Structure to design on (264 residues):
């Protein structure tokens, strides 16, 4: 790697390995003052780092740092590692988290996830009580993904990631055609989604048809039962009969109108 961290008391110093035309040396990039972190955990990919305070009785901080932060594309500042004034321009604190009683930190081989654990092998005692045992999984940005408390939890280790079987030329070719592969996979996903949607719609139509058929059978049975019992069938018209409708019409006519004044 080209970056190094040194940890004098309460200060973390970041150095960058620079190459100049006639000299190769370590240039100080950033000083992180007033830090109580006592462990440094680099990502296997070298870009991200976790500063952790382990096996402490009062502080259990986890700081997630990005040492090559570029920022949004439209606002990203161009950083030139060759310039001394730009050496610390790409350092960004992503998140500060806390895991009560944390004793261990492990990066996964891809550098995408971090697991922190509180092990019974290294118990943390706070106010005479033992901290809860278990583990938490975070992404490289410090976002919590999963938490599990386990009685007598001891250790969690990531499965080793085997080396790729592809050659460098094949990997380079895949990177160049990644957009084409993405379009192809998106089309395949869309086809699968359409097929799933069609199956759901067909299933709903089948259920609706079955319900209509059941309703017609029940209505026919109910009509037959009413006829057998001689009950009046509402809304039904027998042969040769029609429903009678009685209409009443009121007509008012004024024959004479007289107005009379009554003396007081």
């Amino acid at each position: 790697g080209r970056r190094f961290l040194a940890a004098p008391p309460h200060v973390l110093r970041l150095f960058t390995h620079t190459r100049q035309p006639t000299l190769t040396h370590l240039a100080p990039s950033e000083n992180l003052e007033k830090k109580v972190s006592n462990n440094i955990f680099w990502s296997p990919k070298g870009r991200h780092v976790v500063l952790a305070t382990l096996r402490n009785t009062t502080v259990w901080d986890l700081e997630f740092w990005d040492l090559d932060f570029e920022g949004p594309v439209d606002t990203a500042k161009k950083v030139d590692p060759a310039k001394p004034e730009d050496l610390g321009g790409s350092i960004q604190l992503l998140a500060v988290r806390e895991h009560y009683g944390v004793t261990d930190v492990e990066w996964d081989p891809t550098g995408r996830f971090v697991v922190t654990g509180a092990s019974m092998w290294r118990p943390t005692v706070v106010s005479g009580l033992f901290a809860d045992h278990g583990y938490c999984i975070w992404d490289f940005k410090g976002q919590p993904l999963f938490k599990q408390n386990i009685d007598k939890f001891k250790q969690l280790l990531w499965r080793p990631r085997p080396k790729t079987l592809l050659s460098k030329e094949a990997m380079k070719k895949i990177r160049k055609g990644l957009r084409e592969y993405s379009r192809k996979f998106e089309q395949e996903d869309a086809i699968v989604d359409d097929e799933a949607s069609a199956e759901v719609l067909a299933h709903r139509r089948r259920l609706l048809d079955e319900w209509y058929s059941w309703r017609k059978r029940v209505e026919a049975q109910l009509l037959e039962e009413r006829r057998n019992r001689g009950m009046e069938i509402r809304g039904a018209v027998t042969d040769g009969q029609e429903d009678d409708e009685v209409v009443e019409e009121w007509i008012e006519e004024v024959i004479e109108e007289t107005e009379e004044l009554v003396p007081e």
About this structure: The CA atoms of residues 170 and 176 lie 10 Å apart.
